[in-house]
Specification:
Layout lengths: L2 H21 L7 H22 L3 H15 L7 H31 L9 H19 L1 H13 L3 H18 L5 H86 L2 H29 L5 H16 L3 E5 L11 H21 L4 E9 L2 E9 L25 H10 L4 E8 L2 E9 L1
Parallel strand pairs: 1-2
Antiparallel strand pairs: 2-3, 3-5, 4-5
Helix pairs in contact: 1-2, 1-4, 1-5, 2-3, 3-4, 4-5, 4-7, 4-8, 6-8, 7-8, 8-9, 8-10, 10-11, 11-12
């Protein structure tokens, strides 16, 4: 075996693993770890195949290895992990078959001589191209994976991938009696079927992309409608506050008018200190909170923060917002960030409402290449077990609760540049969400 062939086999193993972890959206493994795992597994696989004499183990053990990696992604079911393992296994093999065949035909059109090692070199070039393509298209690959799962063609493609696996077993120079007989009888047909299957699966991916894109647009519109409804409710609340203030303001003027008419200085002082001064502080606080939110230049996030602030104020929580500078971009996907801060704020509001002090503080700022989102709230507890609050189903509340912080912890664990720091100094509970830019 030529060194080109060995290098090509190593790179193919890396391609399978790299594509699979992109499909399952597991971003915690570094490229160094992926390469190391792939090389060690490929060497082990080569030893097993050499000792046993069964090339079929190439495919079976690779499938099991990818499935074991899929266990690290808790959000996927076993069937989904198996599906993506089949996608990685079948698609890369089919692409290699098509590109290798095309490469050989193109080489024969050139004036260069054909050597024994020519096919090995072309195979190595194909492997390098595939790895580069996976690295460059890593984000579209993750989107395509979600499109396929949500597509009505998901189960049909599952069946086609199973057929592709059988074709691979037949083409892999098997030694077992059944597969060897199929290889002798249908080897050439299987090769043609593999090429046809590649283009069928490619067509299904494009169709799935189109169908799911329409669905996502519809969901996006529904989300916009919901945000609009939240804004309307917020405006209604502010209108009610303004109407209430207008009514109280007229009564205050009447009281002042009576004090001025009778020249009763004590009555004027009482109206000022008991009514006007507290109202002024409340107005200043609420106005400043709304103005500070305008420094967030991301509409989706500003909408969520606005709704949470108004919700807190409606429940008589004293809210303080600190956003000293403009926030124009987030160092992680916006949907994931919104899910994270929504969990933090919902928990904080709920605890603040139940507490004696009823205080909620929100800070959002950037400093030294990091973005900080800090939520601090008063709570009714004298002590909190910080080691257990992220456990599944752990909650001090009644009912089927305890999933919020557990889900948040899983989201952060899957994001390379995100950390969450938690502190408790009675009676205040603080969560610091940090993103590296």
């Amino acid at each position: 075996m030529y060194v080109y062939s060995v290098a090509a086999i190593m790179l193919m193993g890396i391609s399978h693993v790299l594509l699979y972890i992109r499909l399952i959206r597991y971003n915690r493994l570094s490229y160094t770890m992926v390469i190391t795992l792939s090389i060690v597994f490929t060497i082990l696989l080569g030893v097993v195949v050499t000792v046993t004499g069964y090339p079929e183990f190439n495919i079976i053990m690779l499938l099991l290895f990818l499935l074991s990696l899929g266990l690290m992604q808790d959000e996927l079911t076993l069937m989904q992990s198996l599906y993506f393992a089949l996608v990685s296994l079948v698609s890369i093999t089919l692409v290699k078959i098509v590109m290798l065949d095309l490469g050989m035909k193109l080489f024969l059109l050139t004036p260069f001589s054909l050597y024994i090692w020519t096919e090995s070199v072309i195979s190595l070039i194909v492997s390098i191209v595939m790895i580069i393509a996976i690295v460059l298209w890593r984000k579209p690959i993750q989107k395509i994976a979600q499109f396929i799962i949500d597509s009505p063609l998901y189960y049909i493609s599952y069946g086609l991938l199973a057929i592709g696996l059988i074709i691979e077993l037949i083409l892999n120079m098997p030694t077992t009696n059944v597969l060897a007989a199929l290889h002798r009888q249908y080897g050439e047909i299987s090769y043609i079927a593999a090429i046809v299957l590649f283009f069928v699966l490619l067509l299904m991916v494009l169709i799935s992309w189109h169908l799911t894109k329409e669905k996502l647009l519809e969901e996006h519109q529904m989300r916009l409608d919901k945000e609009l409804l939240n804004y309307v409710e917020k405006l209604e609340f502010m209108h009610d506050e303004l109407a209430s203030f207008r009514h109280d303001y007229i009564n205050v003027l009447l009281a002042l008018e009576e004090g001025v008419r009778t020249k009763n200085v004590k009555q004027i002082e009482r109206v000022y200190y008991d009514v006007i001064a507290p109202t002024s502080k409340m107005i200043d606080s609420h106005e400043l909170d709304i103005v500070k939110l305008s420094r967030v230049h991301i509409p989706e996030i500003k909408s969520v923060l606005s709704v949470k602030v108004v919700t807190s104020q409606q429940q008589q929580v004293n809210v303080m917002v600190d956003i000293p500078h403009k926030i124009e971009a987030i160092a992680m996907p916006i949907v994931t960030f919104i899910r994270a801060i929504s969990i933090l704020l919902d928990n904080a509001i709920e605890e603040a409402v139940r507490s004696k002090d009823k205080k909620l503080q929100i800070a959002f700022f950037e400093m030294e290449g990091r973005q900080y989102f800090i939520v601090r709230n008063s709570c009714e507890y004298e002590s909190i077990d910080l080691q257990r609050i992220y456990e599944k189903r752990y909650s001090r509340k009644k009912g089927n609760r305890g999933y919020g912080l557990f889900s948040l912890k899983r989201m952060i664990d899957k994001t390379n540049n995100a950390t969450l720091e938690t502190t408790f100094v009675a009676p205040y509970f603080t969560q610091t969400f940090i993103l590296k830019k």
